[in-house]
Amino acid sequence: MSPSEILVVIGGLVVGYGLISWLIARSASRAASGPVDSEWIRTHWYDVLGVRPNASVDDIKAAYAGKARQYEAAHVDGLAPELRASALRKSQELSLAYTWALESAARSTMERSGR
Q1: Sign of the alpha-carbon dihedral angle for 36, 87, 70, 22
Q2: Which residues in 74-98 are b (16+ Cβ under 10 Å) and which e?
Q3: Which residue pairs, CB below 8 angstroms and at least 24 apart, start in 61-70?
Q4: According to the model, what pLDDT value does residue 106 have?
Q5: For the chain, where are the E strands, in sequence order?
Q6: Section 31-53 average pLDDT
Q7: What is the dihedral of CA 110, 40, 46, 107, to 10 degrees?
């Protein structure tokens, strides 16, 4: 292989790598900035929080606290912008799931007490 052919191959690899990196970053930022699917979270809050559908309020609170800690600003500050956007979206999903979980737990408690 001649030196010019080697340079063409290396140049092609660099351009290809740059293009793929840009496409991945663009895709990740679009996914992270899209709207949160609140209807799905409303019906699957237990999947988002990682608890059983009939979990107690204490279990819900503990699961939320543990998962929310992973996405705190202090943990994601040094990350790339698309990862910070993804962490923000996940925080929003967790907060919404937590709200629905507490409402579901309150309804279950009221139904069991006969109100």
Answers
A1: positive
A2: eebeeeeebebbbbebbbebbebbb
A3: 64/94, 64/97, 64/98, 64/101, 67/94, 68/94, 68/95
A4: 85
A5: none
A6: 82
A7: 0
115 pLDDT tier (thresholds 50, 70, 90) = low
**In the block, residue with structure tokens 């500050």:** 77
Residues in the chain: 115
CATH of 35-113, one of 1.10.287, 1.10.238, 1.10.150, 2.60.120: 1.10.287
Residue range 85-100: mean pLDDT, rounded? 90
Average pLDDT over residues 31-45: 76
